[in-house]
Amino acid sequence: MDMNNNQYSGSNFDDFLAKDGILEEITIKAQKRLLTLQIQDIMVEANLTKSEIATRMNTSRSQLERLLDPENSSMTLDSLDRLARALGKQLRIEFA
């Protein structure tokens, strides 16, 4: 392959994803993955199990598993707020 004819030469990865029409989808999945990792860190730090959190949220463990699934980006603000409170945290949402 001739590197001088690379149509993406000089562009960044976001440009590449945008051109393919998947930038928004990838960004949402990455944000959900980061949120899930943050929640897992809080759980380890507080020595909390998923069962304990589900009980605190007054929900089932399977419902909590769906909430923590990095591939599932469907979350309500109510669910996030209940999860935050179950972890002893406050939910803060901001636009950047």
Describe the structure in your own words.
The protein is mainly alpha-helical. The chain has a single domain, classed as 434 Repressor (Amino-terminal Domain) (Orthogonal Bundle). Helices cover 59% and strands 0% of the residues. It contains five helices and no strands. The mean pLDDT is 85.
CATH topology: 434 Repressor (Amino-terminal Domain)
Q: Could you estimate the helical fraction of the residues in percent? A: 55-70%
- Tally of separate helices: 5
CATH class, anyone?
Answer: Mainly Alpha
The total tally of domains equals 1
Could you state the order of secondary-structure elements as H and E?
Answer: HHHHH
Topology:
Elements: H1 13-19, H2 23-46, H3 50-57, H4 61-68, H5 77-86
List descriptors.
mainly alpha, 434 Repressor (Amino-terminal Domain), elongated
Task: Write a short abstract of this structure.
The chain contains five helices and no strands. It is mostly helical and 96 residues long.
